C-alpha cells in the first residue's frame, strides 16, 4: 500500500465562478501544491492543451480507466460529458509529499467525501447569482443551450454549498486566492 504523505483538497464551485483563475494563482504562489489533471470525454476548447488542462480521451479510453480501477472518482457533468480523476498520478504526488488539488463537480466531491473523508472540501461561490450568470454569458465560449445547462447545474451546486468545510466567495481574485492559501497552510501544518 502506498503511504500518502501529502494532503489533498477538493475544490468545487459552479461554472464560470473563476475557479481556474484562482487555482492558477495559488499554484503560482505555492510550489508544493500539485493540480490533478482530470480526464474528460469533452472536446478541447480553443487554447486548451492535452495533458495540461485535461487529458482529452475517447469514450473507450475513459471506459478502460474506469474498468481497471484507474479513477479515484468520476462523474457525468452538465448531463453530457464524463470527467474523472486518474488515480495513479494523485497517489504518486501524495507519496512525494505534494499537496494535491482536486477540482471536481458536486458528484465527484461527494464520492471523495465517502472514499477519503479526511480530505478538506472547499466551495467557491460567486458574489451573487446575477454576477455568475453575467460571467458565464460574458465568457461566450458556450452555446445558448450549453449555457442554460451549465446554469441549471450551478443552481444545484449552490444549493449544496453547506456540505463543504469552507465556502470562499470570489469577490476579487486576490481575496479568494489569499483565503484559499490560508486554508491550505492551516491544514498542512503537522
Ligand atoms: P469544464 O467543462 O468547464 O472544463 O468543466 C466542467 C466541470 O467539470 C467543472 O465544474 C469541473 O469542476 C468539473 N470537473 C473537472 N474535472 C473533474 C473531475 O475529474 N471529476 C469530476 N467529478 N468533475 C470534474
UniProtKB/TrEMBL annotation:
It catalyses: GMP + ATP = GDP + ADP. Keywords: ATP-binding, Cytoplasm, Kinase, Nucleotide-binding, Transferase. Gene3D superfamilies: Guanylate Kinase phosphate binding domain, P-loop containing nucleotide triphosphate hydrolases. ATP binds at residues 13-20. Residues 6-185 form the Guanylate kinase-like domain. The keyword DNA-binding does not apply. Its main location: cytoplasm. SUPFAM superfamilies: P-loop containing nucleoside triphosphate hydrolases. One of its GO terms (molecular function) is GMP kinase activity. The keyword Protein biosynthesis does not apply. One of its GO terms (cellular component) is cytosol. InterPro entries: GK/Ca_channel_bsu (IPR008145), Guanylate_kin-like_dom (IPR008144), Guanylate_kinase (IPR017665), Guanylate_kinase_CS (IPR020590), P-loop_NTPase (IPR027417). It is an enzyme of class 2 (transferase). It comes from the Bacteria. Belongs to the guanylate kinase family. Essential for recycling GMP and indirectly, cGMP. NCBIfam families: guanyl_kin. This is Guanylate kinase. It comes from Arcanobacterium buesumense. The gene is gmk.
Amino acid at each position: 500500500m502506498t503511504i500518502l504523505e501529502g494532503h489533498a483538497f477538493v475544490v468545487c464551485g459552479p461554472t464560470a465562478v473563476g475557479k481556474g483563475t484562482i487555482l492558477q494563482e495559488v499554484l503560482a504562489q505555492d510550489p508544493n501544491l500539485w493540480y490533478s489533471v482530470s480526464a474528460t470525454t469533452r472536446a478541447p476548447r480553443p487554447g486548451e492543451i492535452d495533458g495540461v488542462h485535461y487529458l482529452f480521451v475517447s469514450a473507450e479510453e475513459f471506459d478502460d480507466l474506469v474498468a481497471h480501477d484507474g479513477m479515484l472518482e468520476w462523474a457525468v457533468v452538465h448531463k453530457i460529458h464524463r470527467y474523472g480523476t486518474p488515480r495513479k498520478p494523485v497517489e504518486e504526488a501524495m507519496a512525494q509529499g505534494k499537496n494535491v488539488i482536486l477540482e471536481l463537480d458536486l458528484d465527484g466531491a461527494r464520492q471523495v467525501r465517502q472514499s477519503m473523508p479526511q480530505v478538506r472540501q472547499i466551495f467557491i461561490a460567486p458574489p451573487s447569482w446575477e454576477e455568475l450568470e453575467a460571467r458565464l454569458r460574458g465568457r461566450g465560449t458556450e452555446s445558448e443551450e450549453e449555457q442554460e445547462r451549465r446554469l441549471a447545474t450551478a443552481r444545484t451546486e449552490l444549493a449544496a454549498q453547506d456540505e463543504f468545510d469552507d465556502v470562499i466567495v470570489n469577490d476579487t481574485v486576490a481575496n479568494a486566492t489569499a483565503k484559499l492559501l490560508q486554508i491550505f497552510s492551516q491544514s498542512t501544518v503537522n
